[in-house]
Write a structure and sequence with these properties.
Number of helices: 18
CATH topology: Creatine Kinase, Chain A, domain 2
CATH class: Alpha Beta
Oligomer: single chain
Shape: globular
């Protein structure tokens, strides 16, 4: 594996010595907005943060209480960290005594009927977003929708993608789609490693435990944990659904990928048909299909592109192809005030380049099933020293396989260090290597250990961390240019929102009909 990666790196750098540092990335961080006592803030999205329908950087995800903070894309990791830190500072100083919650998994939720679904206004665009979320509540319950995470968006310079295609001697004009789908196939093969290294949700509220397939330990009266778990958020106890297990997604090419999703959007699902689209003249969901829209499919990685106004993501992908990829399996780092740290960002750059430069073989349905099983095993018991995963047709110890992958990452890290005149990338690998050699260094192990050492209820412990983050963020020195940009974006979001609200609207039934025509 290392030899293949080294050959690819040599091939790329022979074309352009500084090509690797042209990778661009952006981050979306979800987080619950909570009261000072740690309970969910069920108040409306603060006016001081602008309108979530139209704000470039600050929006809501499922709920009025679930913030989503969005960065633009950067080549420079320091600039990305600075932007995220300043954005968190802006939010923290504009939500009164509310807190940004430190963990991905909620610790204290009210009853479903008290969780406020996100509101976006009265326009047709706003109604679509609202009804989609109503449908999620009907299908899965609100509790699951309150789980937060970090999404990592990355795109590679076209020269890198051209180099990959040339290395494999592939004859295609569809360079982006070919390369991004090869990257996603390798991501499926190796993404278990990310939740081992960065999974930070080994503890869940007892209400999330719908079956006792695993032997949970009691942390306190309300919270349970699995001894070796890494990311219960990404397990069947978190952001997973039984109904979607019947959806088979093919990552071998964009045609099959989009066709699989389109089929799920058009295919009526009996349990959802029983819910009904209307109830007493009120929309319950956008449709009664297996998926209302493509965003409802909870995959760990997606091809994405920037779409035109009101155009569905899937329609844009079919017409124009993949523009970047979105990694969706990262837990919020509870020990970072911004949900992610620089070492993680550095490692993700290396790891995703590794996925791009690795084996370009297709992914059969049988292999994909093994990949999914590996992922779930690591989510449930990744720190078990005896855990074995499926590597093709054989079983291999997780530690042995992870260290083999680490060795294959070094040529990428070394090339990035040379091109950026630093040693940060190699150092980032060394940090992750220590976690493989000693599972107690993983954030999942640290969270359990620190919570037990704190000798307080788990909810109070996370509240303490969240308040520490609040203090830390409020001490950040303001970047005047970024603060001005955030204030301007907030003001513009209100103006743009009002323009949409006051614009002439067609009947919503017609709007919905026209919207779904785009999926044909």
């Amino acid at each position: 594996m290392r030899d293949l990666i080294k050959a690819q790196i040599n091939h790329i750098t022979s074309v352009n010595e500084s090509l690797l540092i042209g990778v661009t990335k952006g981050i979306e961080r979800e987080t619950l907005r909570c009261n000072a006592d740690g309970t969910l803030a069920t108040s409306n999205h603060p006016f001081s943060l602008g309108k979530p329908l139209t704000h470039k950087y600050i929006t809501t995800d499922y709920s009025e209480s679930l913030l989503e903070l969005i960065s633009p894309t950067f080549n420079d990791n320091n600039q990305l960290i600075t932007f995220l830190s300043q954005l968190h500072y802006f939010v923290t100083t504009n939500i009164d005594d509310n807190l940004i919650w430190a963990t991905s998994m909620p610790t204290s939720l009210p009853k479903d009927e008290l969780i406020p679904i996100a509101q976006y206004g009265t326009s047709n665009q706003a109604k679509m977003k609202r009804i989609y979320r109503e449908g999620l509540a009907q299908r899965y319950g609100k509790q699951m929708q309150m789980i937060a995470g970090v999404h990592y968006n990355i795109s590679f310079p076209r020269e890198i993608l051209q180099s990959i295609v040339k290395f494999w001697d592939i004859k295609t004009k569809d360079i982006e789609n070919y390369s991004y789908f090869a990257t996603m196939r390798n991501f499926q093969r190796y993404s278990w490693m990310l939740i081992y290294l960065f999974g930070a949700s080994p503890v869940i509220h007892k209400n999330f435990i719908t079956n006792e397939d695993y032997n949970f330990s009691k942390l306190d009266d309300d919270f349970r944990y699995l001894k070796y778990a890494t990311s219960l958020r990404m397990s069947d106890y978190g952001y997973q659904t039984q109904s979607q297990q019947g959806i088979t997604i093919n990552y071998n090419d964009i045609e099959n990928y989009t066709e699989n999703l389109l089929k799920a959007i058009k295919q009526t699902h009996l349990p959802y048909e029983k819910i009904g689209v209307f109830n007493n003249g009120v929309f319950q969901q956008l449709n009664d299909s297996l998926l209302q829209i493509e965003n409802e499919f909870y995959n760990t990685i997606r091809p994405k592109r920037t779409c035109y106004y009101k155009e569905p993501q899937l329609s844009g992908l079919k017409k124009y192809g993949a523009e970047y990829i979105e990694v969706r399996c990262l837990d919020c780092n509870p020990f970072s005030a911004i949900g992610i740290d620089k070492d993680t960002i550095l490692f993700l750059d290396i790891f995703l380049l590794f996925c791009a430069l690795g084996d370009n073989s297709l992914l059969s349905s049988t292999e994909l099933e093994k990949c999914n099983n590996n992922f779930q095993q690591v989510a449930h018991e990744g720190r078990n020293p005896n855990l074995e995963l499926s590597d093709g047709n054989s079983k291999v110890n997780l530690k042995t396989w992870a260290l083999d992958i680490i060795e294959a990452l070094y040529p990428i890290a070394e090339a990035l260090d040379i091109q950026s005149n630093t040693q940060e990338y190699t150092a980032a690998i060394e940090i992750q290597k220590q976690k493989i050699q000693n599972p107690e260094l993983t954030p999942s192990a640290m969270l359990i250990n620190k919570a037990q050492q704190a000798k307080m209820k788990y909810n109070d412990y996370i509240l303490t961390i969240s308040k520490q983050h609040q203090k830390q963020l409020k001490k950040i020195s303001e970047n005047k240019d970024l603060m001005l940009s955030f204030k301007k974006s907030t003001e513009n979001s209100i103006i743009q929102y009002q323009e949409i609200e006051y614009a002439k609207q067609i009947n919503f039934l017609e709007y919905r009909k026209e919207y779904f025509k785009q999926y044909r």
